[in-house]
Amino acid sequence: MALELVELCEKSEEEPLAMSSAAASPACGEHHHHDHHIHGPLDRSKALGIGSLSFEPIFNEKYNANRVARETMGFLCLQRLLPILIGLLTAAAAVVVGYISELLGDLRTEKVNGLIVEHGMLVAWLAEFAMMSGLALAGGFLVYCGDISGTKTAGSSGIPQLIGLLNGCDLKGEFSLRHGLVKWFGVCLAVASGLAVGPEGPMIFIGASIGFFCSRLPQNPTVWRVLGTPPATVGDDVYTRDYTSIGAACGIAAAFRAPIAGTLFIVEEASSHFKKDQMANIFYGGLAAVEVMLLAGGAGSILEYKVQVGPGCSEIPDWTLVFCIVVGLLCGLLGAAFNALNIQVMVWRSKYCKPTMPHRRALELVILCALSSTGWLVAASFFGEREATSSALLPQSSGCIKDDLKNQLITGSQVEASTKGGPVQRLFPAPCLYGLQYNTACREVHQQAGSNSYAKRCVQAVNTSSMRARPDFQDYCCSFSDLNSLMSGDYQVPGNASCAMDLGKAAPSLTGGDGESFNSVGLLSLVPFKTACQNLFERGIPHAVTLEAMGVFLVIFFVLAALTAGSAIPSGLLMPQMVIGGLIGRMLALATLKLQSSQGQGSFWAEPYRVLFDEGLLPGDSSMVFGTLGLLDPGIGALIGAAAFLGGSGRVTLFTTIMMVEITGDPVMIFPVGFATIFAVLMGNMINHGLYHSLIDVQSTPYLPDTWQADQLPPGILVRDMRPQNPPIMVSLKRGREGIKKALKGNDFTGFPLVDEIEVLRDAKPDNTDDDFDGNHVVVVGMCDRKDLEELLESEDEITAERLKQCSNLYPVTVRDNFPLQSAYQLFKSMDMKNLVVVDDNHRPVAVMTRFAFLAWRVAERLPADRLEELQKRERQRHLLRSHSRRRTVAGPLVLEEGQQRLDDRATLTC
Question: What pTM does this model have?
Fold first, then answer.
C-alpha cells in the first residue's frame, strides 16, 4: 500500500514523496487548511495517479528525422478512409445492439402482457421480475465480476471516461477491445431487460473503442513501411484523440441517425482539444454510420424515433414561446434535481457498493429489477382500460396522424382546386368518424325514410333547407355499415359517432380486447421504452395518454432512472432523459389543450364534407374537427420537453437541439426546441453542474476545464503558489549515460528538463544551486521524454551532448514564479501541453508543472486560507469599485457612508 501511494505521488511530479491513505485527506504531503466550495474528485489519490496524454507538437530532431515533412499519398488515403471504416464498424455494432435489444424486449413485454390477461398481475410480476433479473445479471456479469475479465469499470455509459480521455487524461486502459466487447454484449441485455436505461451512451463508448483500436494503424511502423510515414511533429496521442473522437461521434450517428449531432457532441461537450480540421473527418464517419443504419432497415427500423411531418404537423401558435420558457425552466429545475439524486446514489455506491464488492453489485441489480418490475406493473394496475376509438383519442387533433392510423379513418381522396391556386388533395373520412357519410347508398335510405323510423332519423341528420336544395342531397345520410343494420337501429349520427382504432403493440390491453381498448399507462410502462418515447412524440392523437397516467409514471420513472444509472450494467441515460422530458412537455401541452376553447374548421376535407361544417351539421367546437388552429399538439410539447430535459441535465445546447431535430426528422422544430433548451441550461447552471461533468468527479478523473474557473478561483494566484516545491529531476548535457541513469532511477516521471552546466567559482555558487551539479550553474535548454532516454540507454554507442539534443525538444515553454497562474493555465491548455517548466531569473529550472498544478480543487486545497481569503476580498473590492464607478458615470457623484469610503480607499491602495 505504501509503495502504491508513493508511486501515485511520483506520477503527479509535484509533491514530496509522502503517503496518504484517506481519499478525502490531503494527498502527497499536503496540509488541508480549509474546506472550500469547489467540487473535486471523491478519491484524490486516484485522481493524482492518472497520467496525462501529450497532444503538443513534437519538436524532436530524432523523432522527426524518421518521418517525412510531408504526407505521402498512401498515408493520406489511410487518414481519409479510417473515419469511414470506423463509421461502418460502429454502425454494424449498433445494428446488432438494436436488433437484439428490440427483439428480446418485445418478447419480454409480449409475454408479460399475455400473462396479465391470462393469469393476473401476480403471475405476470413473477415472470417480469425473473426475466428482468436474468437479463440484467447476464448483461452485467462481466462488470460486477470484473476480476475475471478485468472490466470492473465497464458499467454505466462510459461517457465520463471518454470526456476524460479527450481532455488529456491517460485513460487508454478504459478503451481496450475487451471493454468495448463487454459494453456491446451488456447493453443488448440491459436495454431488453426493461430497466430504465437506454443504448445510446454505451453506443457512444463502443464507437470510441472502435476509433481507439483503429488509431493504432497510423502509429504502427509496419504501416509506415507500406503506406508511408505520417507528418512530422505529430505525436501518437494525437491519433488516439482524433480517432477516438471520430468513433464517439459515429456512435451517436448510429444510435440516433444524427451525424451532425455527433459532430457537435465532440465539439461542444467531449473534446477539450478539438481541432477544426477534424470536423470533416468526424462528419464523414457519421455519414458512413448513418448509411449502414438505413441499409439495415430504413425508416421505421431499429433505434428509430422519427415523427410524422407534413402540412399541419409542425404548426405552433404564437404563445408557444411562453410555453417553451415554462418548459425550459421546469426541465432545468428537474434536470438539476435528477443530477443531484444520481450523484448522491453514485457517491453511496463508491462507499458501499464498490467494484471490489461483486456480490453487492449483483444484489443491487436484483433490487433494482424488483423495484422496476413492481413500478411498471403497479402503475398499470392503478388505471383501467380506455376505448381505442376516435372519439376518445382524436378530439382537438391537428390531423397530423401517421399513415397506419390515418388509413383506418380515411376512405379515399380526390384532387380539388385550392383557394390559393393549384390543385390540392382532399380526403374523405370514414362514415364512423363524424356519423355522416356521402355515398350513393344513402339514396335508398332516403326512399325508406317515409316508412322506416330509423331511416327517417338517419336522413334527419342532414335535413336542412340548404342541404335539401343541393342536387346531391340524397347522397348524404348518417353512418351505417349496411342497410340491414340500419333497419335494425344500428347506426351513428353526430354526437355518438366513433371509429374503432387499432393502435397495435404500442398500446397493450390488459383485458385481451383485441385492439378495442388499451391500458391508460400500459403504453408507457408495458412496452419497450423506445416505444414509450415514440408514443410520447406521437402527433395527431393528443388524448392517447392521459394526464393522470403521465403524472404517476413520471414520478416512478424519474426515481428509478436516477437510481439505475451507474449500476453494474452497461447502459445509457439519453433515452430515459428523453422519456422524462417527453412526459413533462406532453403533460403541460395537454393541460394547456384542455384549458383552451379554440374554434376551428376542417382544412383538408373534400368539398362534399366541408359543406357539412358550413351547415353546422358537424361539430364546430374543434372536439372532432381536424386541422384546428391555435392549439399546440402534445406530441410537439413532448419533443420540446425531451430536448429541454436533456439540456437541463447534461447542459449542452447545440448538440441537444440538433440531435432532437435530426432524430425526429422535423427541421421546423429547431427554434422552439433550441429556445426551450437554452432556458433549461440556464436554470440548471444556477443550481448545480452538468451530469457528465459531475460524474467525472465521482470517477476521480483529473479533468481540466477549457477555461480558467474564475467563478471558483479569484485572480491574483501566481505560479509560485502552485508549482511543486520539490526540485525537478534534471538531465545534464555533459553527464552522459550515468547522468541519464541517475535521473531515471527511482521514479516514473515522463518528462525531464535538459540542462547545460556552466562552471562557476565555489565562492560564487548561487544559494539555490543543486549540489548534484557540483556547484555549477545550470540552464534549461530543452525537455527530454522518458521513452527517448530509455532508448538511448539501450544503445551501446556513447551518449554525447549532440545525441541528447537530437532526441530532445530544444524549444521548451518556460514561465517564472511571478507569472499569473491563470495565464499559465491558458498557455497550458491552448498549446496542448503536458509539462510546463518553471525557471528562475537565471533560467534555471525550479519545477515542472503538470495538469495537477491547475486543478481548481488542488489550488483551493494548497493555497493557505488567509491567502485565498485575501484574494477573494480583493476581488470583491474590485467589483464594488467597478459598480460604484458605473453608478457615478450614470448618476453623477455618489456620497458614500464613512465606512464604505474607507473600504474604497483601502481597495484603491491595494490596486
Answer: 0.88
